Amino acid sequence: AxxxxxxxxxxxxxxxxxVELKCNYSYSGSPxxxxxxxxxxxxxxxxxxxxxxxxxxxxxxxxxxxxxxxxLKKPFAQEEDxxxxxxxxxxxxxxxxxxxxxxxxxVKP
Amino acid sequence: xxxxxxxxxxxxxxxxxxxxxxxxxxxxxxxxxxYRQDPGLGLRLIYFSYDVKMKEKGDIPEGxxxxxxxxxxxxxxxxxxxxxxxxxxLCASSSNPNIQYFGAGTRLSVL
Lengths: 109, 111
Description:
Radius of gyration of chain B: 13 Å
Structural class of chain B: mainly beta
CATH superfamily of chain B: Immunoglobulins
Oligomer: heterodimer
Number of helices of chain A: 0
């Protein structure tokens, strides 16, 4: 069975501080990992996926297969980063995705 | 730009009513999904479909059914709505790679 765990439901940091949103997963095959973001009054949208190895809006995430983690990081948080973040997993060959419970990030001025 | 359109943003229904939630995507995606989003519970998959007339149960299918008669349209049906089905419902579609594109959501209240 595939499972995604986001241990923090709420995370609050000050503007300019580093931020890390944790994600751990369990999956028996080769996973594909994603981070999705939902800003206030907007639809849920893809932020980044591990295969593309991009930095989006200053965020990065590295897949650590040894620790089965895919933590989302940003060195200097901005107020506009305040949102709900979901970590998600699917098999490399497609199929359904499993989402974590989400972390609400608040960046205080 | 991929567009996933859910027919209603808000719905209010009474207990026992049959409820239809409609979702249409315009990118010829094979896969379509229905989730419910509840505070503290994240996104939970209700049903998904890999192709026309094909459907698979997700994690919480009880009390729901789906229909996919055309590739672009995926309907979620609540046969007899109950108060515990009050929630935000999200539709999504995807192709390969498995990036999901979401609709704006339908907030359903069952009274």
